[in-house]
Design goal:
The complex is a heterodimer of chains A (about 300) and B (about 375).
Chain A: H1 3-34, H2 41-58, H3 63-86, H4 94-115, E1 121-122, E2 132-135, E3 138-141, H5 142-164, H6 166-176, H7 178-183, H8 188-214, E4 216-217, H9 223-236, H10 241-261, H11 264-267, H12 270-284
Antiparallel strand pairs in A: 1-4, 2-3
Helix pairs in contact in A: 1-5, 1-6, 1-8, 1-9, 1-10, 2-3, 2-4, 2-8, 2-9, 3-8, 5-6, 6-8, 9-10
Chain B: H1 2-51, H2 54-80, H3 87-102, H4 105-111, H5 117-120, H6 126-148, H7 153-173, H8 175-178, E1 184-185, H9 194-213, H10 215-225, H11 227-232, H12 237-263, E2 265-266, H13 273-286, H14 291-317, H15 325-340, H16 353-370
Antiparallel strand pairs in B: 1-2
Helix pairs in contact in B: 1-9, 2-9, 2-12, 2-13, 2-14, 3-6, 3-7, 3-12, 6-12, 9-10, 10-12, 13-14, 13-15
The chains are: A mainly alpha (about 300), B mainly alpha (about 375).
């Protein structure tokens, strides 16, 4: 095998994997604490991407402030959606939460479609994103390397928050056993809000790199990252933050390998194959690769 | 001893007679739900048939097909408490399968050049094709469902969701069967008329209600209400859920077949999130736990949607872009119902004769209090 192809493959897997790891991390933060599979998470990404579009096209502020504003948009939507659509359901059935998040997702999609445009809009990406750099003889856009770097920094920061700060410890406690954590004096509202805010931050970072890669935003763009996130968290383990990161990278690896190996006639079935893998994981190894605080919930 | 038994047998006879009459009344009361729902449907249907306005007739036919979909959805989701995302997938399978069975081979060869030859040769009359299509959906459900029935809660929901995506990808890509991403056109006249849809809906209402009241339905509802109590009472949860799921897939496939013979051109994307959202909103607003909930939810949401659709069209004509506003209103309605009235407008109860009399008695009593 050619060395350059191998390096290119590795860079692809690492950069895509970083993106997918961030996506699934954002899902797992909420799932770990509320047991909610957040169908509106894709729309968090869409909102941040639209913030990207509006700021980059209609204003000319410098890119660090722009990225800060995009992240603020992600935080706002995460926090507000929790307040409006998820807080009233606390302590109620999971199905109500699920249906509510599905409804929020539909509402946001339609608002983008109605309020902005059903067609896709081009974003103007800061020029250094698309700068081509040469690494070991392989030419790749700088954004791929940036993505790997940013993900690494974010993961380290999150690791420090979760391991060292009182808030992080409270959150880990809450994800292990919410009731016990509350009895120990962990404020439920704070912990859940922070989980949604972190999820919003991650969604905003994903939005920046996702729309930088595709170069456009559209109302339904959140669907693909959401599905990828689902696959990644199931493979990695839904109850473990580390597991979701591993799942993200593994998904990128499997997807890349499948697109190399599969014959073209089967390539259009790639998603179906990925989801068959998901189903078999859920049936055969529902705790995922990293076990976390998994509890048996199957019958029979 | 003989005295005792004599006495007790006399007592037994009496109590049996009381029980019999009670059973008769409760039986009549129970089945009054079916009779009332069917009566409402048939009266509306005959009235619309008598009006003889094609547009309204079409609207009634399509909403009756939707009603069948919602009833099948209720059968599993309402009784087991599991959000069954994959259901619309079975509707899609039934729609394509029934269409393939009923189409004329010559038309098929012309319209769908990529199709497998053995599928082209298939040809059945419409009623048989409908049932055959539903059976295909049932068969697929029966093959895939068993291991999935072990999973509950969020894991179960993700599995069903993943299954829906698998179905959608296969329906959208398998050009040898479904014409792939292109539109699948049935080259014949509409066979799902008002009376066909109405007749099937009447049977399905009775069947779904019978299922709910049967011992199997009772077991399934027990697994929904308390998993551990149900299992310790000797209920085989996996088997109970499995049968419910498969029956639900059959009704879904039936509705799909009716749908494809009504709309006459279908694509895989007509059986995906958007349709799931519509039938889910109907069931949630009506009340997931009862057959009446599915019925009245469909009725109300259909009326609301038609009204909003007209308003949307009016706005679009006057220059506003308003397509999609209907879904926003429905989604907000759904969230409001989930927060304040989680069992829907029926409150999880069945609409029956005694509920009507109770209602009138309450109204009467309130009236007499005031005077």
């Amino acid at each position: 095998m050619n060395v350059e192809i191998l390096i290119e493959f590795i860079i692809n897997v690492l950069s895509m994997g970083s993106l997918y790891a961030l996506i699934s991390l954002g899902l797992v933060f909420i799932f770990g604490i509320c047991q909610l599979i957040n169908f509106a998470y894709g729309e968090y990404i869409t909102i941040s991407a639209y913030a990207f579009y509006f700021i980059s096209v209609y204003t000319d502020i410098s890119w660090p402030i722009m990225f800060l504003l995009i992240i603020l948009a992600g935080v706002a939507v995460g926090y507000l959606s929790e307040l409006v659509a998820f807080r009233p359901f606390r302590g109620r059935s999971l199905d109500a939460l699920l249906v509510s998040s599905f409804a929020i997702s539909v509402i946001l999609q339609r608002i983008f479609q109605l309020g902005i445009s059903p067609r896709s809009k081009a974003v103007s990406v800061p020029s250094f994103f698309n700068l081509n750099v040469s690494l070991f003889g392989v030419v790749t856009p700088l954004r791929n390397l940036l993505l790997i770097g940013v993900t690494f920094i974010l993961l380290v920061v999150l690791l420090i928050i979760m391991k060292r700060t009182p808030l992080g410890i409270a959150m880990r406690g809450a994800s292990e056993n919410f009731m016990t954590a509350r009895l120990m004096g962990v404020p439920a509202n704070l912990v859940i809000s922070v989980a949604f805010i972190i999820s919003g931050v991650l969604a905003a970072v994903v939005a920046i790199f996702w729309s930088a890669r595709t170069g456009s935003v559209e109302p339904f763009m959140g669907a693909t990252p959401l599905l990828i996130g689902f696959i990644a968290i199931v493979i990695g383990g839904m109850h473990s933050l580390v597991g979701s990161v591993i799942g993200g990278y593994l998904y990128a690896l499997v997807a890349n390998v499948l697109s190399l190996v599969l014959p073209t006639s089967l390539l259009s079935f790639r998603d179906a194959i990925m989801f068959v893998i998901v189903i078999s994981f859920l049936v055969l190894k529902p705790e995922g690769l990293v076990r976390g605080s998994y509890e048996e919930e199957r019958v029979g | 001893m003989s005295k005792l038994t004599g006495k007790s047998s006399q007592g037994d006879a009496l109590s049996v007679r009381i029980k019999k009459s009670e059973a008769y009344f409760s039986f009549a009361n129970k089945w009054s739900t079916v009779v009332l729902l069917v009566a409402i449907l048939v009266i509306i249907g005959s009235f619309i048939w008598w009006l003889n306005i094609p547009l309204i007739e079409d609207m009634f036919t399509s909403s009756t097909i939707t009603l069948i979909m919602v009833l099948g959805f209720q059968l599993y989701m309402g009784n087991s408490g599991i959000l069954n995302w994959s259901y619309v997938g079975y509707v899609g399978i039934g729609a394509f399968a029934a269409a393939i069975f009923s189409m004329d081979p010559a038309v098929k060869a012309l319209q769908l050049p990529t199709m497998y030859p053995f599928l082209v040769d298939l040809h059945l009359p419409f009623p048989l094709a409908l049932i055959a299509g539903a059976l295909v959906a049932t068969l697929i459900a029966a093959v895939v469902a068993w291991p999935l029935m072990r999973l509950s809660d969020s894991v179960g929901a993700i599995t069903q969701f993943a299954l829906l995506i698998v179905f959608n990808v296969i329906l959208a890509q398998w050009s040898q069967v479904t014409n792939g991403p292109r539109t699948f056109t049935l080259g014949h006249t509409r066979q799902t008329t008002l009376w066909v849809a109405l007749g099937v809906a009447v049977i399905v209402i009775a069947a779904v209600y019978y299922f709910k009241e049967s011992s199997l339905g009772l077991k399934l509802r027990a697994t929904r209400d308390d998993r551990y109590a149900a299992r310790s009472s000797g209920i085989n949860m996996v088997a109970t859920r499995y049968i419910g799921y498969v029956i639900s897939a059959f009704i879904g496939g039936l509705a799909g077949g009716l749908f494809s013979h009504y709309i006459l051109s279908i694509t895989a994307s007509s059986f995906y999130m958007q349709d799931l959202f519509v039938i889910l909103s109907m069931l949630v607003i009506g009340g997931t736990m009862s057959v009446s909930g599915a019925f009245f939810g469909t009725l109300i949401v259909t009326l609301v949607r038609q009204g909003l659709r007209q308003a949307e069209l009016g706005l679009t004509r006057s220059g506003f872009e308003a397509s999609g506003a209907t879904e926003i209103v429905l989604a907000i309605l759904m969230i409001i119902f989930l927060i304040w009235q989680p069992n829907g407008i029926t409150g999880g109860n069945e609409f029956s004769w005694s509920s009507i009399t109770r209602f009138f008695r309450r109204v009467f009593r309130r009236g007499s209090n005031h005077t």
